[in-house]
């Protein structure tokens, strides 16, 4: 049977690293979310949020959808909106890479640039209050973590043959870690769920440490076993190493999460550690993180 584009979201590879873990007794696995149609882990919640909103009757074909995003969710939503027949308006910080902005526009989305992610979220709410569209709100929408509970978690559990001991994920909207972590804990409560945030002052695309008033509504820190912080230089160097030593061309948030996973690997033995590679590196070429 022939399939539609959205049918290919998910079922991404879980790959064992060969060189970066060194001579450790641990197995370090990375899930290549850049293999999704729009190139990131955010394809999963984007599709989930639109599908469930339509099923509830909250939106209908032709409606204008508005979302504040730092990049990957916006690209995924722009793709999903194009496939499913919605107009998409995306609001993002000016610091976003040009590749991200151009990708959203390529899918037909309107892009508005704001000073920060916080001001982008504020503007989205103002536009809704003015009747200019409907916000799916990835930060408070339970269909975001639900996508990972229904797909990312089961895939990791199956592909790791139930041997996973630690799950490491960078934290932005927190949908990935909340949904995946909940599923893995249901299968084995001993699985450790570790969230990764940036050190103070670090600017790592896709990883956030939110001010208290902007912490996503879907986030529940009590569900995490541990929080780890990563600095910008280490995240960027680990991203470059991932390409040079493992042949995996990924984004900077992926390097940040893997840096934490490798640090964790130095602390434990005989573990199976899974880290999320959120997206591909080609949408960061203009940032200077990769050698010219």
From TrEMBL:
<feature type="binding site">
    <location>
        <begin position="172"/>
        <end position="176"/>
    </location>
    <ligand>
        <name>pyridoxal 5'-phosphate</name>
    </ligand>
</feature>
<keyword id="KW-0198">Cysteine biosynthesis</keyword>
<feature type="domain" description="Tryptophan synthase beta chain-like PALP">
    <location>
        <begin position="6"/>
        <end position="279"/>
    </location>
</feature>
<dbReference type="InterPro" id="IPR001926">
    <property type="entry name" value="TrpB-like_PALP"/>
</dbReference>
<dbReference type="GO" id="GO:0004124">
    <property type="term" value="F:cysteine synthase activity"/>
</dbReference>
<comment type="similarity">
    <text>Belongs to the cysteine synthase/cystathionine beta-synthase family.</text>
</comment>
<dbReference type="GO" id="GO:0006535">
    <property type="term" value="P:cysteine biosynthetic process from serine"/>
</dbReference>
<feature type="binding site">
    <location>
        <position position="72"/>
    </location>
    <ligand>
        <name>pyridoxal 5'-phosphate</name>
    </ligand>
</feature>
<feature type="modified residue" description="N6-(pyridoxal phosphate)lysine">
    <location>
        <position position="42"/>
    </location>
</feature>
<protein>
    <recommendedName>
        <fullName>Cysteine synthase</fullName>
        <ecNumber>2.5.1.47</ecNumber>
    </recommendedName>
</protein>
<comment type="pathway">
    <text>Amino-acid biosynthesis; L-cysteine biosynthesis; L-cysteine from L-serine: step 2/2.</text>
</comment>
<dbReference type="InterPro" id="IPR050214">
    <property type="entry name" value="Cys_Synth/Cystath_Beta-Synth"/>
</dbReference>
<dbReference type="InterPro" id="IPR005856">
    <property type="entry name" value="Cys_synth"/>
</dbReference>
<dbReference type="InterPro" id="IPR005858">
    <property type="entry name" value="CysM"/>
</dbReference>
<dbReference type="InterPro" id="IPR036052">
    <property type="entry name" value="TrpB-like_PALP_sf"/>
</dbReference>
<keyword id="KW-0028">Amino-acid biosynthesis</keyword>
<keyword id="KW-0663">Pyridoxal phosphate</keyword>
<feature type="binding site">
    <location>
        <position position="253"/>
    </location>
    <ligand>
        <name>pyridoxal 5'-phosphate</name>
    </ligand>
</feature>
<dbReference type="InterPro" id="IPR001216">
    <property type="entry name" value="P-phosphate_BS"/>
</dbReference>
<keyword id="KW-0808">Transferase</keyword>
<dbReference type="Pfam" id="PF00291">
    <property type="entry name" value="PALP"/>
</dbReference>
